[in-house]
Design a protein that fits this description.
This protein folds into 3 domains: about 170 residues, 2-Layer Sandwich (Aldehyde Oxidoreductase, domain 4); about 190 residues, Aldehyde oxidase/xanthine dehydrogenase, a/b hammerhead (Aldehyde Oxidoreductase, domain 3); about 220 residues, Aldehyde oxidase/xanthine dehydrogenase, molybdopterin binding domain (Aldehyde Oxidoreductase, domain 4). About 25% of the residues lie in helices and about 25% in strands. It contains 17 helices and 33 strands. It has a 7-stranded mixed beta sheet, with helices on both faces. Strands 8, 11, 12, 17, 18 and 19 form a 6-stranded mixed beta sheet that branches. α12 runs parallel beside α13. It is globular. The relative contact order is 0.15. Bound molecules: dioxothiomolybdenum(VI) ion (MOS). The site of dioxothiomolybdenum(VI) ion has 11 residues, from loops. Dioxothiomolybdenum(VI) ion binds next to loops.
């Protein structure tokens, strides 16, 4: 009979990853699964159309939803006429603030361990309008086309109130210090302004980055149904556990009454959390007594799902004549709403990228009436490294130094603002290897000196960096069966990045099994753990949980093995998974297979469940992933257009778990960074607070012809203070990329563009 052994979190020494204070044996892996370029196990399903995404579940009696969006930034609904919509063919109901069920606001993301809401405004509870694009009605109909048509028949008028929709006006009304996860985005060490004033060489410049919107290949969608007070929702989510808990709060029910599944996600990047569409669909479903599918249009994503806010940054660096930094100042202002918890924390990279004697870092917030901001790949670092790393390049020019050498010269020996040691930092190796591979030595440092016909050619570089996080809440269940197979369950997510594949490798390695003997099951809020696929931390969170569960499994199996086993008398921390069973770590001849252990005690299976230890490692160490980015551009002297001709990312992200999926993750981040550098810009009408380009026709992202061959290399040096020796790779690729492109453009043309995106008009 199956037996679940529930364990408390295993207490680990802060510098070790198995109980007993030893390094994680996976750092010295035996079976060769870890690091292999294994192709994605979900790949064949996806190319055959057999992977069911959120908007592809079909439920009996399902109705289709369409959302009508408001068109003023602030005020109240004066008149709202839904009669023609209600009479339209196929319409089941029209939900507005007049008939929507009573609901609580969404728990605002970052305000609690399981809060997932993009904003905490009332959802269709009154006639108030808070942003231009806010949902004002939901139509349910028998087909999507009928719902969309009926939506067009709704007539609304507003009593408009004065709104703050211009950034300059918002700043003039006064800014407030930005808070990130409860902490002020402020660092002050020494007197940086005084040090800057006295510095032998300095730069002091301003940079701007625009608003960005989310454009995951799969627009946000959900298919859901109520069964009494129980809600089943097939979502596109990077936070199934958080979403279940948060939806339960909205509807005043128990967390276990909400069942969220999300087996496949067509990209998240920070946007696939809880927004009003899931709530509205669930409310309409309750009202209609029918299952509902809601699939946002591309425009719908722009109206309802937040993006990255704009930033205005000042970066000042003061240096001695030899190039050593004395002062780093990185300050500025971002736009935010009052119903939101994410200022773009662009100062994060400056906290630990370089040694300096004094620091002044500060993010200020100006409040606008607009859609809430949210996480978008490397929130903070993606645009913060643009300012910081362009400024370092500008300083290198002022010093007459090579920008690679300037960075290496200012390499800190411990965290310069926290004072903690680095867990593992091999960024100098990354710089050296990248420079060698890219042919940096061939760069002509004189701007505008290299010409190829009508093209100017230049090279630039920048530091990439992203913190290592591991959020609490990781837990895993392992079911081991007598046929020697293991099933691991954890409420984690596969958004296309290779989680399922890499975690199958990790689990197989740890248990000593073949890849086809392991099933990694994920994407279901009823599974153990509350794991966010965000902050580039999911792999570490899963890894820590799997380590804890495997320890519980070993403990249980040793008990079952008894005195007749070659393992008799051994303790759990002396034993590891090896060749289909357990073996003594320093004497592999003392081995017994799982099948043999279970057969002797006539057990069909063993089930264990355990929680990951608290993430104490980040209290002891300064932990980050690192990279050195190299870019070659060609800028057309007649049209001003920029073509990225070569790009290389040289990374130091600890152990690489799967060489193929990791390269794709890092390359994908770089591609998104090319968009940030050259194309992406939300056009926000400052008079009306409305996004003007809510489509891929007018909001440009890189397409194949914009993307050169991108080479990705890495140090593969395990970090001894993380589970499996790995650090995050999901977000770092977008960091540094914007600056590497801008710095290459400067080298090509002599033009310093400090305002993203670097469109052709700025180079004419
Ligand atoms: Mo990432 S922006 O934390 O999904």
């Amino acid at each position: 009979a199956a037996q679940t052994v529930l364990k408390k979190a295993v207490e680990l020494a802060p510098d070790s990853w198995i109980p007993g204070g030893k390094p994680d044996p996976l750092i010295h892996h035996r079976h060769g699964h870890v690091g292999k370029p294994v192709s994605r196990i979900d790949g064949p399903l996806k190319v055959q159309g057999k992977a069911t995404f959120a908007a592809e579940f079909t439920l009996e009696g399902m109705a289709y939803a369409a959302v009508a969006f408001g068109t003023v930034p602030k005020g109240r609904i004066a008149t709202l006429d839904t009669t023609r919509a209600e009479a339209a063919p196929g319409v089941i109901l029209v939900m507005t603030y007049r008939n929507a069920p009573r609901m609580h606001p969404m728990p605002l993301f970052l305000t609690g361990e399981k809060a997932a809401g993009g904003d905490n405004l009332p959802i269709m509870q009154d006639d108030r309008i808070h942003w231009n694009g806010q949902p004002i009605a939901v139509v349910l109909a028998e087909t999507q086309e009928q719902a969309d048509h009926a939506k067009s028949l709704i007539r609304v008028t507003y009593e408009v109130e004065t709104a703050t929709t211009a950034f300059a006006e918002a700043k003039a009304q006064g800014t407030e210090p930005g808070l990130f996860m409860g902490h002020p985005l402020e660092v002050e060490i020494g007197d940086a302004e005084a040090a800057l004033a006295k510095a032998a060489v300095k730069v002091d410049v301003g940079y701007r980055t625009p608003r960005h919107n989310h454009n995951a290949i799969e627009p946000h969608a959900a298919t859901l149904a109520w069964d009494g007070d129980n809600l089943m929702i097939h979502d596109a989510s990077q936070a199934v556990g958080h979403t279940a808990w948060s939806l339960a709060k909205v509807f005043g029910i128990n967390e276990r009454q909400v069942h969220v599944t999300s087996p496949y996600v067509g990209g998240g990047f920070g946007s696939k959390t809880l927004w009003q569409h899931q709530v509205l669909a669930a409310a309409a479903s309750k009202l209609a007594g029918r299952p509902v599918r809601i699939a946002l249009s591309r425009e719908g994503v722009y109206r309802m799902v937040g993006g990255r806010t704009l930033t205005e940054q000042r970066v000042a660096i003061g240096a001695k004549a030899d190039g050593r930094f004395e002062a780093i100042i990185h300050t500025g202002t971002v736009a935010m709403t009052r119903h939101n918890a994410l200022p773009e924390p662009f100062i994060l990279p400056a906290r630990s990228a370089y040694a300096a004697e004094s620091f002044k870092l500060d993010v200020e917030v100006a409040y606008l009436d607009m859609l809430a901001n949210t996480f978008m790949r490397a929130p903070g670092e993606a645009v913060g490294t643009f300012g910081l790393e362009c400024a370092v390049d500008e300083l290198a020019v002022a010093l007459g130094m090579d920008p690679v050498e300037l960075r290496i010269l200012n390499e800190p020996d411990k965290d310069p603002t926290e004072g903690t040691p680095f867990s593992a930092r091999h960024i100098v190796e990354a710089w050296r290897a990248g420079a060698e591979r890219f042919g940096w030595a061939n760069r002509n440092p004189t701007p505008g000196a290299v010409r190829d016909g009508e093209w100017l050619v230049g090279m630039g570089c920048a530091t990439a960096t992203y913190p290592y996080y591991r959020m609490p809440g990781g837990a895993a269940r392992i079911t081991l069966t007598q046929d020697g197979r293991a099933r691991v369950e954890i409420a984690a997510h596969e958004m296309g990045m290779g989680t399922a594949t890499a975690q199958t490798q990790v689990t197989a390695e740890r248990l000593g099994l073949e890849l086809d003997q392991v099933t990694f099951a994920y994407g279901d809020s009823w599974q153990p753990g509350v794991v966010l696929a965000g902050g580039s931390q999911q792999t570490a969170a899963i890894g820590a949980a799997v380590i804890a569960a495997q320890h519980a499994l070993v403990t249980e199996l040793l008990k079952l093995a008894g005195n007749d086993s070659p393992l008799a008398g051994l303790k759990a921390d002396e034993v590891g998974g090896f060749a289909g069973g357990l073996a003594k770590l320093d004497d592999l001849s003392r081995h017994e297979s799982y099948a043999s252990i279970l057969a002797r005690v006539q057990r069909h299976e063993v089930v264990v469940e355990a929680s990951a230890p608290l993430p104490l490692e980040t209290q002891h160490w300064s932990m980050h992933s690192y990279g050195a980015m190299f870019c070659e551009v060609r800028v057309n002297t007649i049209t001003g257009e920029t073509r990225v001709s070569r790009f290389l990312g040289s990374f130091d992200c600890g152990r690489i778990l799967n060489a193929k999926t990791a390269a794709s993750q890092l390359r994908g981040g770089i591609i998104m960074g090319l968009g940030l550098a050259l194309m992406e810009e939300t056009q926000f009408d400052e008079r009306k607070g409305r996004i003007m380009n809510p489509s891929l026709a007018e909001y440009h992202v890189p397409v194949h012809l914009d993307v050169p061959a991108i080479e990705v290399i890495w140090t593969d040096i395990p970090d001894p203070h993380t589970p499996m020796g790995a650090r995050g790779i999901g977000e770092i690729g977008i960091t540094g990329t914007g600056a590497a492109v801008a710095n290459a453009i400067y080298n090509a043309t002599g033009k310093r563009i400090r305002d993203l995106p670097i469109t052709l008009d700025k180079l004419m």
